[in-house]
Amino acid sequence: AKVGVVGLGYVGLPFAVEKAKVGFSVLGIERNNTRVTQVSQAKSYIADVSTEDLYQVITSGKLSATTNFEDVAKLDIIVICVPTPLTRNLTPDLTYVESVTEQVAKRLRPGQLITLESTTYPGTTDEVMCPILERISGLRQGEDFFLAHSPERVDPGNKRYTTKNTNKVVGASDPRSREISAFFYQQTIDSIVPVSSAKAAELVKVFENTFRAVNIALVNELAMLCDRMDLNVWEVLDAANTKPFGIMPFYPGPGVGGHCIPLDPHYLEWKAKEFNFETHFIALAGEINRRMPEFVREKAWRILNNLGVAPAKAKILVMGVAYKKDLDDCRESPAIAIISHLLKDHANLIYYDPYVADITIKDQTLYSVELTDEVIATADLVLIATDHTQIDYLDLVRKAKAVLDTRGVTRNLNCNSDKVTLL
Ligand code: SAJ
User: Fold this and answer.
1) Is the pTM of this model over 0.90?
2) Which residues line ligand 1 at a C-beta cut-off of 6 Å?
């Protein structure tokens, strides 16, 4: 079968390569010309896609990329993986989904399957995409063409759970579309989780990320309370996790980053309003998680004041700026929010991140320093914002004057705790 993947980003490129690796002939349709060139030259720009895999499918001709939709009519399946960003006031922006759906609709032919993988509010597939496809093509869903939703749920950077072995939820609102889409995904994914409608599949995705955002907010709130009560939130959570079924592995942090957890819950919040329903947990979780960078800034100044260091003279080394460990992705990174707060306080700030060579905050670009003993020892405060695995934290603490550990990564090392303040 010939598969089209519209959008070769964090979702589309890994998906396209997986399908091509098992023998599908895949056409990537990507509007960014540079990306099309890079794919054609087997130069991967997505951390989870190895250059070897990309090289293999490009040279075998199984994967090719283009910027145009001309060949859509020759495809059997079209998988849409374009961004579904939120606007400034947290309302979903479906312009990418709508425009590519129109492009596909113009060339739609009987027998084709369209699936949407982008994270979005329940109703997008049936209420936005289907009408466009039917109006422009004159074809009918479930009879002439088939339409389904299957959310992408791979955990970025996770080597254990990949596109292949992460259970795939697939939903469609008519029996033929359900059957055909499940069959398609079964070709390359170990286990499929069929649900009764596209809406249900859309809701599964936004719910699972809402679940994470709410639970992270709960432990973040606990961290701020423990700070007031002079209790160690890490000790409390580790001990609470000894319950037979644990309390799920959620820990406080400097805030919530990435392109999923801070954003996905607001799709559900927005849609619920259409039913005059207030999703209080989502609003509250977002507010608490967004407060964490400010909380870290205030804690950093408290430590420096206790050391007698005035803000304007404080030398701060921030360790790690990516939104979570062992990745180079800085989208919505809490570390960036913390750095911009501290720069506003005129701190003399440098950062080190093995994955991120430079960051730009407003009009200022900072470059990752070389991590020398000198750099560590001369900092008044070392602020661990992202706990990249490759750092030797015992060595870091030994050489530092004072450490603020917002990830609890030093809590189980037997380093002299009077230098280290945990979040
Ligand atoms: N974080 C905490 N405390 C925690 C867990 C996470 O502070 O206990 C922070 C992280 O540092 C990060 C943010 O929250 O800044 C989000 O981390 P995450 O791992 O929950 O989110 P993503 O976007 O990296 O990946 C998630 C996937 N996460 C896991 O399955 C562990 C999953 O929810 C989705 O498959 C994926 O988003 C997606 O694409 O939606």
Assistant:
1) yes
2) 153-156, 209, 212, 216, 250-251, 253, 256-258, 260-261, 323-324
C-alpha distance from residue 303 to each of 324, 402, 417 (Å)? 24, 8, 14
The pLDDT of residue 416? 67
Q: What is the pLDDT of residues 12-69, one digit of tens each?
A: 999 999 999 999 999 999 999 999 999 999 999 998 899 999 999 999 999 999 999 9
Q: Are 152 and 11 in contact (CB under 8 A)?
A: yes
How far is residue 389 from each of residues 318, 353, 369, measured CA to CA in Å? 15, 11, 18
Counting atoms of ligand 1 from 1, which one is nearest the CA of 119? Answer: 40
Q: For residue 283, how many other CB atoms are within 10 A of its CB?
A: 14
Pocket test for ligand 1, best of 165, 214, 260 (most atoms within 8 A of CB): 260
* Interval 348-397: pLDDT, tens: 999 999 999 999 998 899 999 999 999 999 999 999 999 999 999 999 99
Counting other chains too, the contacts that 203-206 makes at CB distance below 8 Å and 24 or more residues apart are 203/122, 203/268, 204/151, 204/169, 204/171, 205/119, 205/151, 205/153, 205/169, 205/264, 206/119, 206/120, 206/121, 206/122, 206/264, 206/265, 206/267, 206/268
Partnered with residue 141 across adjacent β-strands are 145
Instruction: Kindly give the distance from the C-alpha atom of residue 410 to the centroid of ligand 1, in angstroms, as a whole number.
Output: 21
Q: What is the pLDDT of residues 204-213, one digit of tens each?
A: 999 999 999 9
Q: Tell me the pLDDT tens digit for each residue of 388-412.
A: 999 999 999 999 999 999 999 999 8
Q: What is the DSSP string of 13-54?
A: HHHHHHHHHTT-EEEEE-S-HHHHHHHHTT---STTS-HHHH
Q: Which of 117, 154, 155 to mutate to test the pocket of ligand 1 (most atoms within 8 A of CB)?
A: 155
